[in-house]
């Protein structure tokens, strides 16, 4: 059974609150950087792995995509997507991204935002993605950065008595595998993989690396929200763009 | 004036002591990983940037390279190289790797071990390397890992009262530039660049990334020397292999 925290009622509501307020790091760091890597979407067939409540699927068709298949394991998320971001060019599929059957050489673009750190078998997923992208097509994905997932018992920042962040804790980096964290609820399972594993898995599968991002906020965002400067101190996200030759 | 710490008498002697005892992390982590990426050296024209005292240049010709040009800014290092690792297939050049004139499309292999973090202008260096590698040729380089160079005032490990390592300190990651450290002597200048800058500079210059390593010691080395296990806790080195198409 694949993990499905997004259907946990407490997690689900907390996550929706975070995203609807536009306060998550997704909104100010990850989404702008991710979208900066997108090619012209016009006439593209897009697969969105871990589409959540479908906000990005809608954005892709509004910005020119011919069609989008959005896949998510969470029934609650897919239900919300169908209610709020439906479109006749979007098909929402309630399935694990690790299990869904995909037609070979079918998509121009495979996109995945902050889902791959939930996947047990990264090599298998990358192989299946490679098979379903057409030659010349592109994979763009973001995930939590390996320096953010590394530590087994995650403490994150060392803070002083006043709650000020002193530095980020890095540990257990080379020991890949399960990381259990608290994020709204206890027992959220993520998988830590090193940067070299991520890169070499893509390359050995046949992808060519086109870009690697470790996004920081824009100066404007930092001016509006001082605390975003803290995100420069360690990279929270890794975003990779790769092409199937 | 390029930094030339390896000609500082105290630094030079301390470094030689470390390397001659085979006790540096170079010997147990970096060199085995670096050499694992080498193609068949037979008949290859090799450029070794930051060759130090020439041990690797000698190793490359002994293992089949047709000829090696070894470049190092340190006069003391080049003198030692000529004394101890001379060979009629090796030419040692006492010059900065940032300044040396290089013939276009001339080398099959450009190798550089733990020198690039001393270079001010990485993009310029990569462009010059790209020009001097023949099409189909390869660049392999190692450097200190970005998580090791990141913090401006480098504390390295947090240690407890007994000197036991508690965790690695990560900070200042996105703020690239000069890092002044103590390594045998005060005032050793290194340059911190993020992983994404390193990757994107290579890709935008035209290189295709072939492999990325964050080496750990072998199980045998770790059994001989328990303290090597600590190196798994954060990656000390980054090694990249890239091809000019």
UniProtKB/TrEMBL annotation, chains A, B:
Signal peptide: none annotated. Residues 218-245 are annotated as: Disordered. It comes from the Bacteria. One of its GO terms (biological process) is methylation. Residues 221-234 have a biased composition (Basic and acidic residues). Keywords: Methyltransferase, Transferase, Ubiquinone. Pfam families: Methyltransf_11. InterPro entries: Methyltransf_11, SAM-dependent_MTases_sf. Gene3D superfamilies: Vaccinia Virus protein VP39 (3.40.50.150). GO terms for molecular function: S-adenosylmethionine-dependent methyltransferase activity. Residues 47-141 form the Methyltransferase type domain. PANTHER family: TRANS-ACONITATE 2-METHYLTRANSFERASE-RELATED. This is Methylase involved in ubiquinone/menaquinone biosynthesis. It comes from Desulfosporosinus acidiphilus (strain DSM 22704 / JCM 16185 / SJ4).
């Amino acid at each position: 059974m694949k993990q499905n925290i997004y259907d946990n009622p407490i997690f689900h509501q907390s996550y929706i609150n975070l995203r609807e307020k536009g306060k998550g790091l997704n909104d100010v760091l990850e989404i702008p950087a991710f979208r900066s890597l997108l090619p012209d979407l016009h006439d593209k067939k897009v697969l969105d792995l871990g589409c959540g409540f479908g906000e990005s699927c809608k954005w892709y068709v509004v910005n020119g995509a011919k069609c989008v298949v959005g896949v998510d394991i969470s029934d609650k998320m897919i239900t919300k997507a169908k209610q709020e971001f439906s479109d006749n060019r979007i098909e929402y599929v309630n399935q694990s991204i690790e299990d869904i059957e995909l037609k070979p050489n079918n998509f121009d673009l495979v996109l995945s935002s902050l889902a791959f750190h939930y996947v047990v078998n990264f090599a298998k997923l990358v192989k299946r993605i490679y098979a379903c992208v057409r030659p010349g097509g592109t994979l763009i994905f973001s995930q939590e950065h390996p320096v953010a997932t590394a530590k087994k018992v995650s403490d994150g920042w060392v803070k002083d008595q006043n709650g000020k962040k002193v530095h980020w804790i890095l540990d257990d980096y080379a020991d890949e595998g399960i990381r259990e964290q608290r994020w709204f609820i206890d027992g959220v399972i993520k998988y830590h993989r090193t940067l070299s594993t991520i890169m070499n898995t893509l390359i050995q599968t046949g992808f060519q690396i086109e870009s690697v991002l470790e996004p920081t906020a824009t100066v404007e965002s930092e001016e509006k929200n001082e605390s975003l400067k803290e995100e420069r101190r360690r990279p929270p996200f890794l975003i990779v763009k790769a092409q199937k030759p």
